[in-house]
């Protein structure tokens, strides 16, 4: 976690994953002046407009769980709409997500490829999203993992292991989008690192 300076919660809902990460960072810091703080937190959700007020109140430091000092744990929060059932690069549904992730370079309509821009997050938090979208997440996740630099972390938590097994099929052996996984059982939590 010492190398994580920016995080993105994909399918953030009310921001529970982000709050959990910030609580972990506050705990790790041991009450010091938040040396484990983040420079940036990106929150993406299909229905972010419905969640925005709740998310802002949690993450703006008003929640004692994440409060560490007067400045809080995060330098900046950014929120935007994101539809993981559509292509990250080629869909007209995800321009805000592309911009927040630093992928707003030119996009070819034929190849659905972006400039070799690199997503600007060190850690992606993804919970229950794979189950909720019933397999329609594959193209989005393959693009996100493929563009991410070596060492990027991906946290996946799901109510069942079916979507997680599919993740392994997609990413474990694929040389362009390969992830090494640590599996935490029985909670169906998988942590992947881009290799």
Written description of the protein model:
By secondary structure, this protein is of the alpha/beta class. The protein has helices spanning 16-29, 48-62, 95-100, 129-132, 138-147, 162-171; strands at 6-10, 38-45, 74-81, 123-127, 153-157, 179-184, 189-194. It has a seven-stranded mixed sheet with strand order 3-2-1-4-5-7-6, sandwiched between helices. The radius of gyration is 16 Å and the shape is globular. The longest helix has 15 residues, at 48-62. Helices cover 30% and strands 22% of the residues.
Based on the model shown, name its key terms.
globular; 7-stranded mixed β-sheet; 195 residues
Summarize the structure.
This protein is of the alpha/beta class. About 30% of the residues lie in helices and about 20% in strands.
Contiguous helical run count: 6
Unreliable parts: 64-69, 106-116
Range of strand content: 15-25%
Helix content: 25-40%
- Rg, rounded, reads 16 Å
N/C terminus separation: 17 Å
What does the average pLDDT come to?
Answer: 79
Provide the spatial order of strands within the biggest beta sheet: 3-2-1-4-5-7-6
Q: What is the tally of beta strands? A: 7
Biggest sheet architecture: 7 strands, mixed
Output the helix-strand order.
EHEHEHEHHEHEE
**Overall 3D shape:** globular
Question: What structural class do helix, strand and pairing data support?
Answer: alpha/beta
């Amino acid at each position: 976690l010492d190398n994580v300076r920016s995080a993105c919660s994909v399918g953030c809902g009310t921001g529970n994953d982000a709050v959990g990460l910030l609580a972990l960072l506050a705990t790790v810091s041991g009450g010091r002046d938040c040396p484990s703080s983040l420079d940036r937190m990106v929150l993406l959700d299909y229905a972010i407009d419905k969640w925005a007020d709740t998310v802002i109140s949690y993450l703006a430091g008003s929640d004692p769980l994440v409060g560490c000092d007067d400045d809080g744990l995060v330098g900046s929060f950014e929120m935007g709409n994101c539809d993981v059932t559509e292509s990250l690069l080629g869909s007209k549904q995800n321009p805000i997500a592309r911009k927040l992730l630093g992928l707003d370079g030119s996009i070819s309509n034929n190849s659905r490829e972006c400039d070799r821009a690199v997503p600007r997050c060190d850690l992606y938090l993804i919970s229950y999203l794979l189950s909720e979208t019933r397999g329609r997440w594959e193209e989005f996740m393959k693009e996100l993992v493929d563009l991410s630099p070596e060492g990027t972390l991906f946290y996946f938590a799901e109510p069942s292991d079916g979507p997680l097994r599919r993740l392994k099929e997609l990413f474990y052996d694929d040389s362009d989008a390969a992830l090494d996984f640590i599996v935490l059982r029985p909670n169906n939590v998988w942590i992947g690192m881009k290799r």
